[in-house]
Design goal:
The protein is α+β, with helices and mostly antiparallel strands. It has one domain. Helix content is 16%, strand content 16%. The protein contains 2 helices and 3 strands; from the N terminus they run H-E-E-H-E. Strands 2-1-3 form a 3-stranded antiparallel sheet. A hairpin with a 4-residue loop joins strand 1 and strand 2. It is globular and about 30 Å long. 28% of the residues are buried.
Length: 92
């Protein structure tokens, strides 16, 4: 994957450990992974992966689905804590 924006080493290492893609959930725990770019915007895994050539991803953290966090994906607008836990998605 060619990324002219160069994601952080932490993001690249995560991508490598997950077979070349960014995971949607952590394991254990199944927390939803939120990705942060160099401007402080948050992204869901799907948007972070599809926009990796445009965003300079710097970090990530997990949130509880259905929890109190009110974090919105800067790309698709989804409220991340309200997303359903899809067992078929990749785990961290």
């Amino acid at each position: 994957m060619d990324n002219p924006q160069k994601d952080s080493r932490k993001i690249e290492a995560l991508r490598q450990r997950n077979g070349g893609t960014l995971p949607t959930y952590t394991w254990p725990g199944c927390y939803l992974v939120v990705y942060i770019d160099s401007e402080g915007d948050c992204f869901c895994a799907r948007c972070a992966e599809s926009g990796h050539k445009y965003y300079q991803l710097q970090d990530y953290f997990g949130i509880e689905v259905g929890g109190e966090a009110d974090i919105t994906c800067a790309e698709c607008g989804a409220v991340l804590s309200e997303l359903e836990n899809d067992e078929s998605e990749d785990a961290l």
